[in-house]
Amino acid sequence: MANIKVTLTRSVIGRPQNQREIVKGLGLTHINSFAIVPDNAAMRGAIRKINHLVDVEEAE
């Protein structure tokens, strides 16, 4: 199964609580932090809700 790299590029200050929880759940703590997550439907759905805060690319 493939993995994807998610990088937090914008701050969560002033964002709704549900978006903050998604960022925390993905393991992102501060700007420019990244996490390698599995590429499945659940992760894609979570990333879609915060796509304005993160960059996504394929991990090797």
Give a brief description.
This protein has helices at 17-25, 41-49, and strands at 3-8, 34-38, 54-58. The protein contains two helices and three strands; from the N terminus they run βαβαβ.
Describe what this molecule looks like in 3D.
Belongs to the universal ribosomal protein uL30 family. GO terms for molecular function: structural constituent of ribosome. This protein has 60 residues and is α+β, with helices and mostly antiparallel strands. It has a single domain, classed as 2-Layer Sandwich (Ribosomal Protein L30, Chain: A). The protein is built from two helices and three strands, in the order βαβαβ. It is globular. The relative contact order is 0.37.
Q: Please bin the fraction of helical residues.
A: 25-40%
The main pleated sheet reads as:
3 strands, antiparallel
Number of domains: 1
Strand line-up across the major sheet: 2-1-3
Identify the CATH class: Alpha Beta
Helices and strands, in N-to-C order?
EHEHE
CATH architecture: 2-Layer Sandwich
Could you tell me how far the N terminus lies from the C terminus, measured between alpha carbons in angstroms?
A: 11 Å
* The named CATH superfamily: Ribosomal protein L30/L7
Strand content: 25-35%
The number of helical segments is 2
User: Could you say what the CATH topology is called?
Assistant: Ribosomal Protein L30, Chain: A
Q: How would you classify the helix and strand content by structural class?
A: alpha+beta
Mean pLDDT: 96
Please state the overall shape, judged from the principal axes of the Cα atoms: globular
Low-confidence stretches: none
Strand tally: 3
Over all CA atoms, what is the radius of gyration? 11 Å
